[in-house]
C-alpha cells in the first residue's frame, strides 16, 4: 500500500490517518527448560510437552482468571490454599478449572526451576494463542492517543516481563518483540510480568522492521530510545499514536531499526551511570508519554 508521508515528521505530530493492516501471524511455540521455566508433562514433572509451569500468586491467579488460558493442573501448599482458596473457588464458578491439588513446599521446589519464588502456588498451563500486529491495531481503532512498546532484541525474560508489567500499569496497548532474539513464554517471564502477560498482548513478529512499517500504516509514529539522540522524550512533545522502541542494554537499537524510526529521543540522566536497565527506561518513558 503506497502513501505519501513527510520525510521527517514534526515534533508534537498527531496521529497518522488510519489504514488497514495485514498483521504478521507468525507463531512461536513455548519451549522451556530448567534454566528459564520448566516444561510440564502429564505427570506435572519436566518433560518434552508443550505445557509450561507458571508460579507465584499474581501470575497464577491472573492465568486462572484469563478465559484465553487453558489450565491443566493446579498445585498449592496448605498455606497457599488457605490464602487463595476462596478466590480460586470463585474463579472456578466462572470457568472450568482443574481441581486444586495439595503439595508440600519442598516437593513444589523440586518441580520448578531452582530459585523460583512460587509462594506455594503453581499451575501447569498451555501457552497463550499467538497475537499479531492486527490485534494491536484493532485495539487502537478509535483512539486518538495510544502507546505500543517494541523491544529490539531484548533477550532477558525478566526484562521483558518487567516491561509488560510497566506497559500494563501505564496503559500501553501491548508489547512487540521479534520472533528470534527474544525470550519465549516462560514461567520466569510470567513471574516478572506479575499477571500482565494475561492482560496485555505480547506480539511476536518475524520481521521487526516490517512490523514498524505496518504500525506506521495504522497511524503510529515511531520513536526510538537512544542515549545519543539530540532530543529528550519530553522535548519531542510527541502526541497521538506512538510506538516506543527500546533496544538491548549492550547494543541498543540496531541500524535498520533506527532507520525506520521517525524520531530518536533520549531520557535525561546524569553521567554517574552509563545507561538504565531497559525495563526501567521503559517505565520512565511510558510515564512521560501518558502524563501529557
Describe the structure.
The structure is a single chain. It is built from ten helices and eleven strands. With 292 residues, it is α/β, with parallel strands linked by helices. The protein folds into two domains: 52-125, Ribosomal protein L30/S12 (60s Ribosomal Protein L30, Chain: A, 2-Layer Sandwich), CATH 3.30.1330; 133-290, Alpha/beta knot (3-Layer(aba) Sandwich). The chain has a seven-stranded parallel beta sheet, sandwiched between helices. Strands 1-4-2-3 form a four-stranded mixed beta sheet. Helix 2 links the parallel strand 2 and strand 3 (101-102). Helix 1 packs parallel to helix 2 (78-94) and helix 5 packs parallel to helix 10 (278-290). The chain starts with 51 loop residues before the first strand and ends with a helix.
Q: What is CATH's topology name of the largest domain?
A: Alpha/beta knot
Supply the CATH class of the largest domain.
Alpha Beta
The percentage of residues in β strands lies in 15-25%
**Structural class by helix and strand composition:** alpha/beta
Number of helical segments?
10
